[in-house]
Amino acid sequence: MILEAFLLVAAALFCIGLFGALTQQSVVMLMMGLELMINGIILAAAAFWYFLASAASDGQVIVVAVVTAMAIEMAMGFAVVTAIYRAQRIDMTDSATELEG
């Protein structure tokens, strides 16, 4: 495959994620949109690494570190959403704006 094909798929993932993040009111769907956006960025970075500097292993390390950070971030986000839902039965972003610490 060629670099442009990977970048096209990455751009499509990012755009679908952006649309999902901007249009959904459910917190879980919002986080899924953010996940798609990050996956698009990771795919573009991995494609650039593969086609431009595949001899160096720096790109692989960066991609693995970003995927690990993304997994941790999403797990923490879902834990916060679950805690908010259990405490106050709020699962929409409009209702969550009324929370005060």
TrEMBL record:
<feature type="transmembrane region" description="Helical">
    <location>
        <begin position="62"/>
        <end position="85"/>
    </location>
</feature>
<keyword id="KW-0520">NAD</keyword>
<comment type="subunit">
    <text>NDH-1 is composed of 14 different subunits. Subunits NuoA, H, J, K, L, M, N constitute the membrane sector of the complex.</text>
</comment>
<comment type="function">
    <text>NDH-1 shuttles electrons from NADH, via FMN and iron-sulfur (Fe-S) centers, to quinones in the respiratory chain. The immediate electron acceptor for the enzyme in this species is believed to be a menaquinone. Couples the redox reaction to proton translocation (for every two electrons transferred, four hydrogen ions are translocated across the cytoplasmic membrane), and thus conserves the redox energy in a proton gradient.</text>
</comment>
<keyword id="KW-0472">Membrane</keyword>
<dbReference type="InterPro" id="IPR039428">
    <property type="entry name" value="NUOK/Mnh_C1-like"/>
</dbReference>
<keyword id="KW-0874">Quinone</keyword>
<protein>
    <recommendedName>
        <fullName>NADH-quinone oxidoreductase subunit K</fullName>
        <ecNumber>7.1.1.-</ecNumber>
    </recommendedName>
</protein>
<keyword id="KW-1133">Transmembrane helix</keyword>
<keyword id="KW-1278">Translocase</keyword>
<comment type="similarity">
    <text>Belongs to the complex I subunit 4L family.</text>
</comment>
<keyword id="KW-0812">Transmembrane</keyword>
<keyword id="KW-1003">Cell membrane</keyword>
<dbReference type="Pfam" id="PF00420">
    <property type="entry name" value="Oxidored_q2"/>
</dbReference>
<dbReference type="InterPro" id="IPR001133">
    <property type="entry name" value="NADH_UbQ_OxRdtase_chain4L/K"/>
</dbReference>
<feature type="transmembrane region" description="Helical">
    <location>
        <begin position="36"/>
        <end position="56"/>
    </location>
</feature>
<feature type="transmembrane region" description="Helical">
    <location>
        <begin position="6"/>
        <end position="24"/>
    </location>
</feature>
<keyword id="KW-0813">Transport</keyword>
